[in-house]
Amino acid sequence: MITRHLSKTLKTAARDYPVVTVTGPRQSGKTTLVQAAFPRHRYASLEDPDQRAFAMEDPRGFLDQFAGKVVLDEVQRVPDLFSYIQGIVDRQDRPGRFILSGSQNFLLMHRISQTLAGRCAVLRLLPFSRAELIEAPIRDIARFVQVRRTAEAKKPEIATDLFGTMFTGSYPRIHDKSLKPHTWLANYYQTYLERDVRDLLNVGDIEGFGRFVRLCAGRSGQLLNASSLAADAGVSHTTVRRWLSILEVSFVVYLLRPHHRNFNKRLVKSPKLYFPDTGLLCYLLRIRRAEELVSHAARGAIF
Asked: Contact, 134 vs 156, CB < 8 A?
């Protein structure tokens, strides 16, 4: 198992807070991380229909079966649990009592802000970083210019080729099972992204939304122009804003806010649009082989 840099922070948070939440995109390794970090905690996944039915019909009884500490996976699937968890931690304020994980950031954070504010630490796990893949320590940016090349450079490299790294992306399952990136990402896009979109937004025109996502991919690394994006996608400016917010909370895209001396300008100037995973970005741009990146017009934006 590749060590995740978030593991240390996760364990520290569990010593300070009764509830710790790990959120992030689907298949980023949240379940593997929390189970490895807390092997003595009991585990329950609310993706399991039987467990979910039990928790929905009898939330108190469901939680009472865990006398000690527990990991609850995909907890946003049963929103009523959060109120019961609040009652338990208010009566028994034990650090690390509940470790929660979930992929639908919007639903998860909405429930946490309603019931667990001040009681819960929230951490975000993205797919592998470059340092995790080569098992290198975290770089301290303040000391970066002082760091000399050490024995770290002798460690085995994974996907050392630049274009291969960009094409493969960072989702753990691709690296763990040595899967073909294009095939896995195609399945990932169809099964997870579309399901989350239906759950969060109830989009009727899935084909139109798919076209919108690919248009966003074509604008990766550029200033966001919502009006132009709306015109190309054939939807309203309001719809673009709503769809972008869903992509952002689903960890498919992120918006990099501008930096200005004037603080007000930071809030009103256009952000830049990026995709956290270059493999998914390559799939959306219909790049089928790493070699295509050598001469592809978007290789700079992907990098």
From this structure: yes
Per-residue pLDDT tens for 274-296? 999 999 999 999 999 999 999 99
Backbone angles phi, psi at 23, to 5 degrees: -120, 170
pLDDT digits (tens, 9 = 90+) for 119-133: 889 999 999 998 898
Are 176 and 85 contained in the same domain?
no
- Is 151 within the bounds of a domain? no
Token pair for residue 277? 């995973």
Domain of 37 in residue numbering reads as 6-124
pLDDT at 205 > cutoff 80: no
* d(C-alpha 143, C-alpha 145), whole Å: 6
- CA–CA separation, 158 vs 32, rounded Å? 20
Judgement on whether residues 184 and 63 belong to the same structural domain of the protein:
no
Three-class SS string for 137-206?
CCCCHHHHHHCCCCHHHHCCCCCCCHHHHHHHCCCHHHHHHCCCHHHHHHHHHHHHHHHHHHHHHCCCCH
Q: How far apart are CA 89 and CA 260, in angstroms?
A: 42
**Residue 147 domain flag:** no
AA letter at 236: S
Which of these, 213, 197, 190, lies nearest to 246 by C-alpha position? 197
190, 296: one domain: yes
Contact 189, 277 (CB under 8 A): no
Q: What is the CATH number of the domain that holds 35?
A: 3.40.50.300
Q: At 90, list the tokens.
A: 């208010």
